[in-house]
């Protein structure tokens, strides 16, 4: 329908703002504050929301069983299963191989590199969770840029954005789609137009969005992105750490001879971290604390500028210079002795919230920390004790075999491909067949996506694509807890009448605007809210409001649900709105404004394309 709101307002009655609705709106405000300030990790915030909703049961209507129902919700279990399936695919190296083949095509043309990035990312993100897809492709795309003499800054934000639009191709592309489908099904009792989404419910519109986004990124976007990281930049120059790294020789007769690395650190001070021990032609990278020293050893240490000055007078060692490039640390580029690369703190990393302790980091990860970026900005002299957050990037040196192991851990994203990656390539055909089976069973509606996805998980283990102990490592547990926490919040929002009241406010304040303009406003508002809170939280809060608003103006609730769903999965204005944006923040050397510069026009273009597409396909 295209009737304006001014006609609908005559028949719409104001819902009563009850005490129950006020309490639930207060909980929503409380949740928004926690999401915005990030005082607690999002999974802890989600658990707290469950507790608050149950404690306030007389007003929220959420008893203990309903409070924990999010853990058994179809969307939560399906997301968990899809994350495991994505983990199985990643173990085979299929995604990385696709990226490398596209890189071979790209050469040194920026447009070809962007085309390769988009083509390798968007279709895959329609069937695999886009978070691990970006994590897998960051090193591949960085390598594409370096080989083509292009700044990685030109390609990494497009990588993230391409994964987001690609996630809108199918129901399983993002956790947001699955959650939106579940909410839509729950609202079906009240709004007959709503129900669970089919596998390819919105693929037609998703293809239009992907093509529009791709054309923008390839032909317009890269002009708006500055070269924050120079092409083939040297890591030590990029992180400005050459002034903080020094070579110390253990002189004849030194009291340190026969001592350990730990004893050296105790003598030189807590701000001094031994990165390497060089003995003749051998380099011990990230040496253990019990490593014994010999006369003539050269210690490569990382410290602050003031401490380097005091090292000139330290007993038993002589300051003999400092490396000026990463190749010097790698002994002229010999990868057998250790690689310098970047590690990005991932979404569900155990490092989040921890203070950086180089000694502990070396013991756990077998990597020496040289430098750090926090939210795109270089951390100055002192990195010891700095609290780590998602998206922080650490410059490290590590042996090649350790780099391969790190690339398969969930704690960090490696921004450089291992020289000898250990993929289960022989299992690739089996993994692909399993994913095709999962999608086909759900698409043909033989069984729901929940059952087909769980069956796929079992098949991955039985066929050896995944080891049983790898199941838990593949899951991003903070997303699972977030879903479990916000689902009962959405139920309270609906049952208390708070959603209906918010919808009435939208209707009453929109005045004489046509319905399609109100639909566009819901898209814009959802996109803006997603920039500051989780995309999953935004659909929980806004889908009930959007459906109620559509009903109030005599419009199609499904159209409004689609607008919220698409907008929640396209967060382009900043690095914190979507986890994939954080993953490329450090490796791209970006600033906060870079996202807005390229993302704002894209957000506006897609808002128009999506809303018009919804009107044409489903009607308003």
Automatic annotation (TrEMBL):
Annotated InterPro entries: Cit_transptr-like_dom (IPR004680), DASS-Related_Transporters (IPR051679), RCK_C (IPR006037), RCK_C_sf (IPR036721)
Cell location: Membrane
Subcellular location, principal: membrane
Annotated GO MF terms: monoatomic cation transmembrane transporter activity
Keyword Transport recorded: yes
Highest rank taxon of the organism: Archaea
GO cellular component terms attached to this protein's record: plasma membrane
Gene Ontology biological-process annotations: potassium ion transport
Keyword Ribosomal protein: no
Residues spanning the membrane: 17-37, 44-62, 74-94, 114-138, 202-225, 430-462, 474-493, 500-526, 532-551, 558-578, 598-618
Protein's UniProt name: Di-and tricarboxylate transporter
């Amino acid at each position: 329908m295209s009737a304006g709101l001014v006609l609908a307002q005559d028949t719409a009655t104001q819902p009563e703002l009850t005490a129950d609705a006020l309490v639930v709106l207060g909980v929503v405000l409380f949740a928004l504050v926690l999401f915005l300030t990030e005082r607690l990790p999002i999974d802890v915030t989600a658990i707290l929301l469950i507790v608050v909703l149950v404690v306030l049961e007389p007003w929220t209507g959420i008893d203990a069983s309903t409070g924990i129902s999010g853990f058994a919700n179809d969307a939560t279990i399906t997301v968990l299963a899809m994350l495991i399936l994505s983990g199985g695919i990643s173990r085979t190296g299929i995604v990385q191989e696709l990226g490398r083949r596209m890189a071979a095509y790209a050469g040194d043309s920026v447009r070809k590199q962007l085309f390769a990035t988009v083509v390798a990312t968007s279709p895959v993100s329609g069937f695999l969770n886009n978070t691990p897809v970006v994590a897998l492709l960051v090193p591949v795309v960085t390598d594409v840029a370096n080989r083509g003499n292009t700044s990685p800054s030109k390609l990494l934000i497009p990588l993230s954005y391409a994964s987001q639009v690609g996630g809108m191709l199918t129901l399983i592309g993002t956790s947001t789609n699955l959650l939106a489908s579940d909410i839509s099904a729950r609202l079906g009792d009240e709004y007959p137009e709503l129900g669970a989404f089919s596998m390819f419910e919105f693929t037609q519109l998703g293809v239009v969005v992907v093509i529009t986004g791709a054309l923008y990124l390839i032909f317009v976007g890269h002009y708006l992105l500055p070269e924050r990281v120079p092409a083939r930049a040297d890591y030590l120059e990029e992180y400005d750490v050459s002034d903080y790294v020094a070579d110390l020789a253990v002189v004849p007769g030194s009291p340190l001879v026969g001592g350990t690395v730990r004893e050296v650190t105790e003598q030189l001070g807590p701000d001094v971290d031994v990165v390497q021990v060089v003995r003749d032609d051998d380099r011990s990278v990230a040496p253990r604390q019990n490593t014994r020293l010999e006369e003539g050893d050269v210690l490569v240490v990382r410290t602050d500028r003031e401490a380097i000055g005091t090292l000139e007078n330290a007993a038993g060692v002589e300051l003999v210079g400092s490396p000026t490039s990463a190749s010097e640390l790698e002994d002229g580029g010999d990868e057998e002795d250790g690689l310098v690369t970047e590690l990005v703190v991932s979404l569900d990393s155990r490092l989040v919230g921890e203070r950086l302790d180089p000694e502990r980091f070396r013991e756990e990860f077998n990597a020496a920390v040289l430098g750090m970026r926090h939210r795109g900005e270089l951390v100055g002299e002192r990195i010891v004790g700095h609290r780590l957050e998602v998206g922080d990037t650490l410059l490290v040196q590590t042996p090649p075999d350790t780099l391969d192991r790190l690339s398969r851990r969930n704690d960090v994203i490696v921004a450089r491909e291992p020289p000898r990656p250990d993929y289960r390539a022989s299992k690739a055909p089996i993994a692909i067949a399993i994913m095709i089976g999962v999608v086909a069973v759900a698409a043909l509606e033989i069984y729901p996506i929940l059952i087909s996805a769980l069956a796929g998980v079992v098949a991955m283990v039985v066929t050896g694509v995944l080891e049983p102990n790898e199941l838990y490592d593949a899951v991003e547990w903070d997303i699972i807890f977030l879903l479990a926490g916000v689902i009962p919040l959405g139920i309270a929002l609906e049952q208390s009448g708070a959603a209906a009241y918010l919808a009435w406010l939208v209707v009453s304040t929109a005045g004489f605007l046509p319905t399609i303009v109100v639909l566009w406003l819901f898209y814009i508002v959802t996109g803006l809210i997603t920039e500051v809170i989780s995309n999953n939280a935004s659909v929980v809060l806004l889908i009930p409001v959007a459906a109620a608003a559509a009903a109030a103006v005599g419009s199609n609730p499904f159209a409004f649900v689609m607008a919220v769903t698409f907008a929640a999965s396209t967060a382009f204005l900043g690095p914190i709105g979507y986890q994939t944006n954080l993953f490329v923040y450090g490796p791209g050397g970006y600033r906060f404004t870079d996202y807005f510069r390229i993302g704002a026009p894209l957000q506006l273009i897609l808002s128009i394309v999506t809303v018009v597409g919804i009107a044409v396909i489903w009607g308003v």
